[in-house]
Specification:
single chain, alpha/beta, Arc Repressor Mutant, subunit A, D-Maltodextrin-Binding Protein, domain 2, nine-stranded mixed beta sheet, two-stranded antiparallel sheet, 11 helices, about 40% helix, about 25% strand
Length: about 300
């Protein structure tokens, strides 16, 4: 059995004619007849039978046809993969994004890239605590979507693309608000409540210094989902992305705080980031261009 024999059998089965199959495959009719005869002899099965002026599949032929088609598709996939590797296309490209930057438009860029380069494995990874930027610095990811500050240029040389904005706000569960003797206008009014905050950042950032908070008690979590769950349990107060709790704010379950002595809201830039000066392959370059297209369609400055 050869793939060429299977291709001839499948073509005849689909067209119902050796003559039409010969024309499509650029073969002679005797060559196709002999190939199918030998295939049937090897299988010890009758695959095709005459029905008027057409050839039709036998019951055995109907059972065999999808398996033959599958093998031919596998051959095409292998040939496509070989051509892909010969053109130095990457085997794997990873786009990593911080959980604070989970924007649906990045999925369009990933889908378009996969369709253009189906043989490259695309990894889409979400991380917390500025881990996206750290993965790019270490070279374990190609592109990051991350909160961005100009001081990050001190960590490495980056190619950056403005990709939107984020906002982190101080919030408290409404049940805690009811239990306070005084409406919280100053951080001292929250002195008896734990501050819910990240365990650590992958980049050297002091959140107490950034927000101006000196907490008496803390509960440290390693992801925003756990932090949100604790907030909803009334376990304390904390800073969390507004998008993460927009529904709870609208329902009045969580209340945004406005404190006079500390930062109650921090807004910042989100950027697509990659290391400058690296030799990127065509797939990574295509993905980067897709992100540029998104930025341009949003009217953001590049």
């Amino acid at each position: 059995m050869t793939l060429e024999q299977l291709r001839m059998f499948v073509t005849v089965a689909e067209l119902g004619s050796i003559a039409r199959a010969a024309e499509q495959l650029h073969k002679t009719q005797p060559a196709i007849s002999i190939a199918i005869k030998r295939l049937q002899e090897e299988f010890k099965l009758s695959l095709l039978q005459k029905s008027g002026n057409r050839l039709q599949l036998t019951e055995d032929g109907q059972r065999m046809l999808p398996h033959c088609r599958y093998l031919l598709r596998q051959q095409a996939d292998i040939s496509g993969l070989a051509a892909h590797l010969n053109r130095d296309h990457e085997r794997k490209v990873e786009l990593v994004f911080d959980t604070i930057c989970q924007q649906f438009n990045i999925y369009d860029a990933v889908i378009n890239t996969q369709q253009a380069f189906p043989h490259t494995e695309l990894y889409l990874t979400s991380v917390a605590r500025l881990g996206a930027l750290q993965k790019v610095i270490k070279g374990t990811a190609d592109i990051a979507i991350t909160p961005w500050m100009h001081s990050f240029h001190e960590l490495a040389t980056f190619d950056t693309l403005p990709f939107g904005q984020f906002e982190v706000i101080a919030v408290l569960h409404v049940s805690c608000l009811r239990n306070l003797h005084t409406p919280p206008k100053h951080s001292s009014h929250l002195h008896d409540l734990p501050l819910l905050m990240p365990q650590a950042f992958d980049i050297d950032i002091d959140i107490e210094k950034m927000m101006g908070v000196v907490p008496a008690f803390t509960i440290r979590t390693n992801d925003s989902d756990t932090q949100k769950a604790l907030l909803m349990k009334g376990a304390g107060w904390g800073y969390i992305p507004r998008d993460k709790v927009s529904e709870e704010l609208a329902l009045g379950e969580l209340v945004a705080l406005n404190l006079s002595d500390v930062t109650s809201s921090i807004r910042g830039e989100i950027s697509a980031v990659r290391k400058l000066g690296e030799q990127y392959g065509p797939v990574s370059e295509f993905l980067w261009q897709q992100l540029i297209n998104i930025v341009q369609s949003q009217g953001l400055s590049t």
